[in-house]
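Same chain as my last thread, 105 residues:
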Amino acid sequence: MALKADLSHFLDEEGNELELTEQAKAVFKFLTKIVSSVSENIEQPLIDVDLKCNTRAEGLSCEGDIEAMCIAIGIIEWHCDTCEASGSISNWQESMWDKQERTIH
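reply #2:
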């Protein structure tokens, strides 16, 4: 089953992290690492995120690596290269983890 996450659900009105449970913090940290890696390399078709699958939650045994890509404006998809874990992240643009270079016209 895919994890569909809206990054704004973890943030307050100013874009700061809400008070989260330990489990939610682990998921949030996982998601923001993906957002940072993908947005920093937004033009690449597939990004090898420096992240192991088991960092999503305590007790997961998969040692697979996470790969991700921006599939549409504002949507990042990720998957584990070993198990069937996958998901998408929305509403990440303009967050503090968005590392895209801005061009002023």
